[in-house]
Design a protein that fits this description.
The chain is mainly α and about 150 residues long. It folds into two domains: about 1-70, Leucine-rich Repeat Variant; about 70-149, Alpha Horseshoe (Leucine-rich Repeat Variant). It is built from nine helices and no strands. Helix 5 runs antiparallel to helix 6. The chain starts with a helix and ends with a helix.
């Protein structure tokens, strides 16, 4: 895909993300933005994340940020994580937690570890396991670093 075509696709995905009444179209637009892997999409995805109400679209936005892999998204994603873990554990959206962990793992920013740490004590073994994998991926020396604190 040449740059002109990429720019046209980028603009179309952004337009759809913000103006479509269909949650499916917005979710696909977010997913497509992630597949473009262009850092310039992070600010637009952040704006969409703040205004989006549909759970599926929110998850696709977070996934797209992870696919892009720009560390600018780390703190935006950890804000969503904070909101999720403030809920009672039985009310937490497990799918969203998986999406958040996987996206932060793809980004690989060590600033995420402090926020992910709370999930190491999750009652759900699959969330705990994925969180440990994220720690290993982001900082293979994390166990040693915790002991030295």
């Amino acid at each position: 895909m040449d740059q002109k075509t990429r720019n046209e696709a980028f603009n179309e995905y952004i337009k759809t993300l913000f103006s479509s009444s269909s949650f499916k179209e917005r979710a696909i637009a977010a997913q497509n933005l992630g597949q473009l892997k262009e850092g310039r999409a992070i600010n637009m995805l952040a704006r969409a994340l703040k205004s989006e109400k549909d759970d599926v679209v929110i998850n696709r936005i977070i996934e797209a940020m992870g696919e892009i892999g720009d560390s600018k998204a780390t703190m935006l994603i950890t804000e969503v994580l904070k909101q999720e873990v403030e809920k009672h554990e039985e009310d937490q959206d497990k799918t969203r937690l998986f999406v958040i962990i996987e996206s932060l793992m793809k980004i690989g920013d060590k600033r995420a570890l402090e926020h992910l740490g709370i999930l190491l004590d999750s009652c759900h073994s699959d969330i705990r396991k994925l969180t440990e994998e994220a720690f290993e991926c982001i900082d293979p020396e994390w166990k040693l670093n915790i002991r030295s604190v």
